[in-house]
Amino acid sequence: MAYDPIQCTRAYLTLWKLVDRLLPDYSKWLEIGPIPNVELEINAKYIAGSSLSNLNWCDEPDRLRKYAITVLGLLRHQPLEQGTMADADRLRSELMGQALRYAKEINPETSEWPRTFPWTLLSSKGR
Amino acid sequence: MVLFLKAYAGRSSVSGYSAQTWIAKLVNEYLHPGSYFCWFSTNFNAMANGDDSNPIWLYWWLDRAVAQGGVNNAKVQQVRANLLLAIDRELRAAGRASEIADATYVVTGAPLQMFTPQVWRINMAAIAGRYTGGHQYPDEYNITDLRAGEFEIVIS
Question: To pair with B76 at 20 to 30 A between CA atoms, which of A54, A110, B106, B112?
C-alpha cells in the first residue's frame, strides 16, 4: 500500500486521544461525538502488533509503532502517578503535533473523490 | 424603538451552559445535521469542575487565543485535533469516507477566526431525560442529540 496521510493522521489522532483521556485536563468538552475508548484501544493494539510492512501506509512505520507501544504501556499504569503525568503530557503534545503534521499533507486535489465539503464555510462570517 | 434585553442567571436549574467554537458548530452540523453533541454545566462558571470542563474558562481561553492570533495555541490545536478525529471516525461510520480528505483539508486550513468561541444556553426543560450526568465532575453533563431549537447562542 502506498503512503496514505489520511491513515497516518487517523493513527496519530487515535494515540493522541488515548493519552489525552489519561490526563486530568483532557479535552472532553471539545469533542463533538462519542468515541468509545475500546475502539481507540483496538486501533492502537493493531498498530503496536503490526509488522512494519503492514504499516507501509506510513512513511515512518517504526516510529508510529513505537509510539503505539508506549501509549499501550501507559494505559496499563493508570491512574498515572505525578511523575508519569508529566511524561504523558509531553507524549500527548508530540502525538498531536504528528497528527496535525500529517493532516496538512492531505490534499483533496489529488483525491479521486468529488469535493463535498461546504467550502462556503471558509468565507462565511463568524460574528 | 424598544429593545428587549434578555438576562439569564449564571447558575440555574433551568439553563445549561456550553462553550463551543464557531467551527465546531459547523462541523457538528456537517457530520450530523440537526443534532449536536455537547458537554455542558448548569453554572456558567462551573467552579466545582476542572478548568477544562468550565464554560467560562474555555470561553476565556479560546477568545484570548483568537484575539492574540494564537494559531499554535494549545487549546486551538486541541479543538482542531478533536474535529479531525470526529470527521474521520463519523464519516467512515456513515459510509461517507470519500469526504474525509475534503473535510480534513478544510479544518486543517481553517483560519484562526473560525475558532472564535460561543456560549450556548441550553433549555434544560426541552432536553429532560436526554442528557447524562455522573461524569468526571459534579456539574458536568453530556447530550448527544441536542436539537437546534433547544439552545440559543448567547455570546458569539
Answer: A110
Q: Is A95 on the interface with B (CB under 8 A)?
A: no
Q: Chain B residues with CB inside 8 Å of A118's CB?
A: 26, 30
What does each C-alpha distance from B72 to A87, B24, B68, B151 come to in angstroms? 21, 17, 11, 30
Chain A hits for B86, CB-CB cut-off 8 Å, are 31-33, 35
Domain boundaries, chain B: 15-155
Q: What pLDDT is attached to residue B6?
A: 73
Q: Which of A67, A79, A60 lies closest to A13 in space, CA to CA?
A: A67
User: pLDDT for B92-148, tens place per residue?
Assistant: 999 999 999 999 999 999 999 999 999 999 999 999 999 999 999 999 999 999 999
Q: Which of B30, B77, B90 sits opposite A100 (nearest CB)?
A: B77
pTM for the full predicted model:
0.91
Cross-chain residue pair B38–A33, CB shorter than 8 Å = no
First to last CA, chain A: 44
Burial of A36 (0-12, 13-18, 19+ CB in 10 A): exposed
Q: Does A33 touch chain B (CB under 8 A)?
A: yes
Q: Collect all residues of chain A within an 8 Å Cβ-Cβ radius of residue B108.
A: 100, 103-104, 106
Is ipTM over 0.90? yes
Cα(B147)–Cα(A60) distance, rounded to whole angstroms?
43
Domain ranges of chain A: 5-122
